# Entry
Amino acid sequence: MDKMQAIRGIAFDLDGTLVDSAPGLTAAVDNALYALELPQAGEDRVITWIGNGADVLMSRALSWSLQERNAQRAASGKPAINHADIPQEEQAMMLRRLFDRYYAESVEEGSFLFPDVAHTLAALHEKGFPMALVTNKPTPFVAPLLETLGIAHYFRVVIGGDDVKNKKPHPEPLLLVAEKLGLAPNELLFVGDSRNDILAAQAAGCCSVGMTYGYNYGEAITLSEPDYVYDRFNELLPALGLPHSENQDVKHD
# Structure
């Protein structure tokens, strides 16, 4: 039996699935690193760190940047800097506070809907599918971003990274969505772009779709074995029994 036939509701990941947030995240990460006089990472590297929430993002950024600075010093004949007097956890907290400040300034202007997202959500909403959003992004940033992008009204339930004890890949956020929507887990489809999304869906007993264009740590999403793999967001429509056409793409500047 096609698992899609049981679907009565849909939940979506945010970063890398609905929204290209890499420009805004990169700006905030690099500005925070710069403020601590550390090497900046750049978008290609930051993309590989996205997906586990802001604390993990900044921990990865700090680890890389400290190593990069010492590598740069070694290359120029300078001694490495010993940070033993400042625990890395404390440095990570400092960096996280800086990140929050800079991300608040860049999140909305540095985030864009991926192609096909707007009209696909509209079609699913019109068909009556209850929809939810599940993201590891810090909760205070989520609602303003959805409003700015014009998609907030599509979601009956929004779960941010601060709304649950256990973030994805733990099943807790998806089980909470299923409960709030009054669905059994197998009636909920979860659409994401990373292994954390697929692992969360598998652990919760939800059907999963993996999008190939996202931020999956540089890995192919097929390695996580989602139930379905799509290259374009509007491929959800025929899979759920709805028509779509290639000329419905909505561009966002």
